[in-house]
Amino acid sequence: MDMTKEEYGKYLKDRQPRSPLGRDMLRAFLVGGLICTLGQGLSLLFQNAGLGAETAGTAVSVTLVFLGAVLTGSGIYDDIARFAGAGTLVPITGFANSVVAPALEFKREGLVGGTCAKMFVIAGPVIVYGVGSSVVYGLVLVLLKAL
Q1: Looking at the predicted structure, is the pLDDT value of residue 82 above 80?
Q2: Suppose 106 and one of 83, 118, 119, 120 were both cysteines; which one would form an S-S bond, judging by CB atoms 3.0 to 4.6 Å apart?
Q3: Which is it for the CA torsion 66, 68, 72, 75, positive or negative?
Q4: Torsion of the alpha carbons at 58, 60, 66 and 70, rounded to the nearest 10
Q5: What does the alpha-carbon distance between residue 85 and residue 19 come to, in Å, rounded to a whole number?
Q6: What's the rounded mean pLDDT across residues 3-31?
Q7: Do residues 100 and 72 lie in contact, with contact meaning Cβ atoms separated by under 8 Å?
């Protein structure tokens, strides 16, 4: 069976499953929005409990990292991620998931060689580039103020 490139392209296009892009975007939007709404609700709760805005923000970050880690450890975060896709990449919970998931995956290799060594496989580059870019940003600010 000889086909031209165009015929083969049409053949593949006709047989590929359709991507439910609209549904996937809606799920990501709703779950990501739900995580952000949870964060805002926690912030209001902490502020109503007497914390200042900055301290409440810190408490929200700690709480969301904790919840992300617990949900990852219990396997629930994976189910949510399968449903919502990119909606679970909201930075704070996604970061917790990116630290805990590799740690759990490599725990059978031991505490030091497995869990501790692999914990920052995914999150490590984010931390390194975040710190590095903040240093560069700080140096640029210092140089601009000196001029």
Answers
A1: yes
A2: 118
A3: positive
A4: -170
A5: 13
A6: 87
A7: yes
The whole-number pLDDT of residue 26 equals: 93
The answer to whether residue 114 scores a pLDDT higher than 70 is: no
Residue 101: domain span: 20-122
Residue 5 in domain? no
pTM of the model: 0.66
Cβ contacts of 42 within 8 Å, gap of 6 or more: 59, 60, 63, 64
pLDDT of 122 > 80? The answer is: no
Rounded (10°) CA dihedral 89, 92, 93, 95: 80
The two three-digit tokens of residue 67, written as one number: 């919840």
Domain count, the chain: 1
Residue 25 lies in a domain: yes
Give the separation between CA 60 and CA 45, rounded to whole angstroms.
Answer: 10
| Cβ–Cβ < 8 Å for 68, 39 | no
**What pLDDT does 1 receive?**
66
